[in-house]
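Chapter review: from sequence to fold.
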Amino acid sequence: MKKYVALWGALFFCVVFVSLYLMMETVSTSQRRFPDIDTNSLDAFEQKINEIQKDVIKNHDTIKKIKEAVRKLSSGDKESLEKLKELLNIEEKDTKWKPVTKEKLVRVELDKDRKQLVAMKIKDVEVSKEMCSWSDAPMARSDVQMMDLFDMLPFDNPDGGAWKQGWNVTYDHNEWKNKQLKVFVVAHSHNDPGWVKTFMDYYKQQTRNIFNSMLIKLKEDSRRKFIYAEMSFFHLWWNELSADKRQEVKKLIESGQLEIVTGGWVMNDEANTHYFAMLDQMIEGHQWLNGTLGVKPTAGWAIDPFGHSPTMAYLLRRMGLNNMLIQRVHYSVKKHLAKEKQLEFMWRQQWDSEATTDILCHMMPFYSYDIPHTCGPDPKICCQFDFRRLPGSRYNCPWTVPPVRISPENVAERAFMLLDQYRKKAQLYRSNVLFAPLGDDFRYDTMEEWDVQFNNYQQLFDYMNSHPELGVHAQFGTLSDYFTAIYKEYNVKAGQKPGQYPVLTGDFFTYSDRDDHYWSGYYTSRPFYKSLDRVLEYHLRAAEMIFSVAVVTTRQEKLENFPMKNLFEVLINARRNLGLFQHHDGITGTAKDFVVADYGNRLFESLNDLKQVIKESATFLSMMKRGHYTFSKENPVFNVDETRPSQDSLPEKTVLSVTDSSRPVMFYNSLGHRRQHVVRIYTNTAHVEVRDPENNLVPSQVDPFWKNHVTISDTIFKISFIVEVPALGFSIYTIKKDPSSNARNIPASVTIFNAAESQAYTSSIFSIKKMQPRNFALENAQLKAEFSELTGLLQTVTTKFDDVKHDAQIGFFSYGSKMSKERSGAYLFLPDGEAKPIPISAPLIRIIQGPVLSEVHVMVDMVEHVTRLYNSSGSEGSSVEVYNIVDIKSKSNLEVAIRISTNVRNPDGVFYTDLNGFQIQKRKTYSKLPLQANFYPMPTMAFLEDDHYRFSVLTAQSLGIASQKQGTIEVMMDRTLSQDDGRGLGQGVQDNKRTPNKFRFLFEKRKTPIPEKSRHTAFPSLLGHLSSLHLIHPLFVMPYHTQEVFPLYHTFSALRTDLPCDIHFLNLRTMQNKDDDITIRTVPKDTSALILHRLGVDCNFFSRGLTCQTADGKVALSSIFKEIEVMSATAMSLSLLYEEEVIETTADLNLQPMEIVTYKVQLL
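The token string follows.
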């Protein structure tokens, strides 16, 4: 007993000592002495006092718990010893994985000439040995590797007869003498949430009718079955149903007559989408589905995306689905896999050496998912079994042989005809189970179609099933019925590999449906909206994170003044609008003009709503006295610094009215690590003083605001400076007018080439020189960029780390449209030959140089081009930024690209592009394929590499990319097409806007040569990952707006410490109550989805300019948040359908490279 008392005494002493230390640390202030005490200082003192109070309370609670445990221990309570160990363990765990964050970033100062920021010490971050071992290890093994298959295939296109892209399929009539072919005919209706009609028009005019008919017709015969996918439509219908009809729907699902497949908000595109948005729309669909109907989908259904990504397979598998189906794959690939009976396979991730990501995938073998191309290889025969095309209907068969109604007189003959197609199709697969879809776009929207399809097919089934000599059993079924039958045949559990089914790795881009018609145009179509999509995406994630923190804080402090219901309602709507746009005719840019505008208005509405969620949540958290917060939509405390007048306009920066009084400006960082970044705000004066949260004077730079190409504004100025912002938090800087000459606020110098002789440039602020063109350079602490005197475009980049000069020649190019029967359109890219250089002759060139950033503006035909260098020790200082505004509204049948030519010697035409921002896919430029076949999607990055260097292009928006020649990367930026390309849209693409695109160019030196050149995947460096995250998740800038003065926290972070560099805080998503209960649907649940992604990293590169460390994938949930306690945590499937295990919050989680994990957490 004495030793326990001694232990208690020691613990008491330690806690008291730590408490005193923390209090002393909290009250310590800067060495700087202030001549007087202003309001900001008083606010800061109050903030310190509040922090001391919290530390005292926290440590008082800890001492109290220790005392209680020791008291119980002394009375013989053995469980108290475990409790005491747990208390000690919590303190130990708090420091187990976290990197040191007390150290400030290096302060930024001007040199003695006030022309340049002092070169900062840039530390290299070491990647963990565990990650290096993993990334250098052999990758996944497979029977079919798609890149190897592309190497092998001749991509010829001989006429196959009835199956034009295949061959004359035959079979042995004795094959089914001793076994039965099991046929599942699966009725479905593919409903596009926007294409040639808007989302709501489709619902009102067609989809509602499909659902209403379904509810009646399925009940008429229990043998009838139906599958449906898109929850965006289904939830609209559900909300209109009475309680009785809702029960009828549930009964149909419970009986297996109605199956929900995939269950996402939409059937998302898989080329242009980012994995955050893909996952988010799946979560929205699954949470709505499970919350209202208690349904958990088991199979994925993707019949219309234009190519398929393994990222989708990964997400589905980690959501708990075992099976999936795909359709749109290159016809040559389909033919080869069909011949090898490999159309069904276990799809495995290329980096998965443990085979944990395998999902059973069925690939449809023929041209389309419509009825003529799904019963068998002969569309002329199959079309005769689409009974909606009976004579007298507005539909017909293009092969001129119409269907006939089934009758006792013809049933035998028609059954044999159909069975012949079934048997031929069965030759393409390994199992004795056959899948036969029965549907098309917006089918079953009339009672008549339900009757003619189901009644005629049932007669055929009855005949087949009553004649055992035919060796067939046919029935209506669902997708899960089909996969269940396969597992049963091979006697394996769901999700396990059936028999000798092959394992496949790789992706299915670029898709071609016939001839040289490659669907690579949609990678770039409507790029304005692809950019707007990414803007909304980072707003949604940022809003989710800070709203969740604000909600927990509200509940902690028992306040009712934070408008969580109002904000949560618009947050839910934003989730759904972003989800809707992930549809494969939304983000792809392949809808009619007015439909695109409808999508745009939805994105625009949600963008404004999310800005409100962010600024109100941040305002609430910034207040020292949160009980004094009031919500005012018209007069917010902090406001956003940019607005958009309409859905099709570029953002406009708010001009701050700076006065003699300090005006706070908040900078919000949504990422899980602190950031040091250059920010730029617009003011009404050039004479300003910027101070950081500790009241230190911050060096700043003044740049001119150009009213047009040649005129400088004398009322608007750009102020740039470097800010440091904590992880998932904000910093508040202040800015005020400084009538004296502030030595730390430096006007940029301006040099102009090729100005008109008569044009005079005058300014009382800036030094402006008109000069004859000459070669020139921009520099920062890490890079030197050299430019052409003739064009003003980038030529070379020198990396100062190793003093090596790299070619980086920028050029602009254009493609025309091939003059043929079928031409480029929204989907197809059919160029008239190789790209032609866009001539540049004596363009207007503006060179703006200063201590914080330097940039070059070049005005060329169709493009306003800016190249920029930041003088920052953060990630942005390691790369060259390129910003273009492309305007081709006045052009016709033209596609514009930017090409960067380097001296990287990438072998064999190999380059790399990302898939959905999640993983990297090796590519190769094939001379055997047409030019358009060698374009691929680039949602976030692409790179070239040799044994010495890697050159990466990071992008803020999804676009199409190619590498036509060694050392080059070419990015398509916009396209305008005058004609339809024959894929159903019925129009060209001519609604072009002034479109922004932003890139970063990154040169990295390899530590070692490329390992294992036969690998088909690769990984970004740590610097590449973080640079990409910083590009697509910019800091939010929110100036103080109200005249009222509130005491504010000058810095705030929801995290106790930075997350490791290789762990991305993907989302903190407040969970929703039942969506169909209006009394609680906008009341946030007390649980959140905490989603983390451990990035896969290539260790063979230096990682400079980062503020975080790595930690072998270890993180403890209890150690993530600063003032928020994780009360409970459960590991879930990705979309939170399935509980996997209860997590001990104090234990280290070991996140594996590349894995995304979801935890349902209760926070308080």
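Two observations follow directly from the output. The chain is about 25% helix and 25% strand. The longest strand covers residues 712-725.
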